[in-house]
Amino acid sequence: MKTEMDLTVGKVPTTLLRFAFPLFIANLLQSLYNIVDMLVVGQIVGSTGVAAISNASTLVFIVNAICLGVTTGGTVLIAQYKGAGNKQGQKDAIGTIYALTGVLAIIITIAGLATYRHVFSLMNVPIESLKDARDYMLVILCGTIFVFGYNATCSILRGIGDSIRPLIFVGIATVINVILDCIFVGLLNMGTVGAAYATVISQGMSFVISVAYLKRQNFLFDFKVRSFAVHPPIAKSVLKISLPTAIQMAVVNLSHLIIAAMLNMYGVTIAAASGIGLKINTFAGMPCWAIGSAMTAMVGQNMGAGQIDRTKKIGTTGLKINLLVTLISVVFVQLFAGRLVMLFDTSDPTVISAGIEYLRICCFWNSLIYAIMYSFDSFAVGVGAAPLAMVDALLDSFFIRLPLCSALSSFTMLGFKGVYWGQALSPIIPALIGGAYYLFDNWKTKKLADSDIA
Q1: What is the rounded CA–CA span in Å between residue 177 and residue 194?
Q2: How many Cα atoms are found within 13 Å in the side-chain-facing hemisphere of 42?
Q3: Which of 25, 52, 278, 301 would staple 132 via disulfide (CB 3.0–4.6 Å)?
Q4: What gap in Å lies between CA 147 and CA 128, rounded to an integer?
């Protein structure tokens, strides 16, 4: 089966959707790592276990965000080399990406192990859930190298126009994760730490399987030790995208961590409810993220091929599709809000009620505005203007969201609902900035690599 697509030809809507759909399913399956953990733990351990994984997951998301940010630079550069037909550039970029992510994985693991206990203290994690959160996080951090390796492989494949094989690899991991969750948490009664072991083992097996498979398929990269080398000009070009994107994703998830700390002050019930709401909202955002990722790769290939008019059409088409799929997701969540929350916790009516309120406010209002912002930011990253997306993320996450959440919760009668409203309204200004960048056409002369892509 041919898995690579040439994203510089064909009708834009059709090509974008064909490439994005496997990414959506892969994102959906990958999100099930944590959701399955919460489902199984919620049914067996209860609200304290859900709150533990919810708080730990906020920190996990930061680690994963840094990984995704770094590997996104590889996707864009490889896509531009692919569009220009430069195979040697693709090979050198792949070796550089693997080398950079390997080093970064070690650094993140060491830093995470040194700080995660202190971070949980700053987050005001409910005392009933603190030990479980720490145990869960310790195991997850020890598996960071697998997360980075897997995401580096998938980013490379996306850059060359392949969204099928990443789906296969994450599908294998998800099946393993579900089976191990049932064994470790259910049969062996290991609690939250069992869910962490299930996640790490499944991610490790997925990474090993993906590399072994590619080596047997005459892949562009030979996976020999000498090939894992940093090429300075390419590394510089990758980091032009990777650093701003990593910062962008890290600050977004750091803001979620701070928001979690705000909500923890209202007790374990609100902590568990908002954690469940965030997971469901994350699920609802999967189609939007898939379209955005597809836009980034598709824009990269077309910029590399010098197809400026087609590149602009990708931006317009991606925005329209993103608004449509996000609206469908939002309507689904609103119709089944109560049932979705009860999947995670049926024992506490107050958790269910607060979780529904989260979805009524955050999922409904935030998702549609965020879809606009994310579409324009994905376009900007694809053309090589990652700093714009980073600025938008800083505005959305820190300079608007946090002050707004704090003000609405502290100086109004809204209480924890004020935090929900602050999150819902924060992307408005960043969405306008991204739209202005797209419309003013300065991106048309954007060039990622220091030397000619071709």
Answers
A1: 11
A2: 25
A3: 52
A4: 29
Of residues 62, 187, 395, 282, the one with CA closest to residue 274: 282
**Number of C-beta neighbours around residue 446 at 10 A:** 13
DSSP-derived 3-state class of residue 441? coil
Q: What is the pLDDT of residue 308?
A: 92
Residue 174: both structure tokens together = 């998800």
User: Is the CB of residue 23 less than 8 Å from the CB of residue 166?
Assistant: yes
Phi, psi of 162 (to 5 degrees): -115, 110
pLDDT in tens, 136-157: 889 889 988 988 888 888 888 8
52, 217 contact by CB (below 8 A): no
3-state secondary structure of 318: helix
Closest by CA to 126, choosing from 220, 37, 55, 205, is 55
DSSP annotation of 411: S
| pLDDT of 450 | 46
Tell me what pLDDT residue 327 has.
93
CA neighbours closer than 13 Å in the CB half-sphere of residue 54: 37
Tokens of 414: 């809204």
CA nearest to 97, candidates 113, 81, 112, 84: 81
CA distance 151 to 158: 10
Residues of the chain where predicted confidence (pLDDT) is lower than 50: 450-451
CA gap 61, 198 in Å, rounded: 17
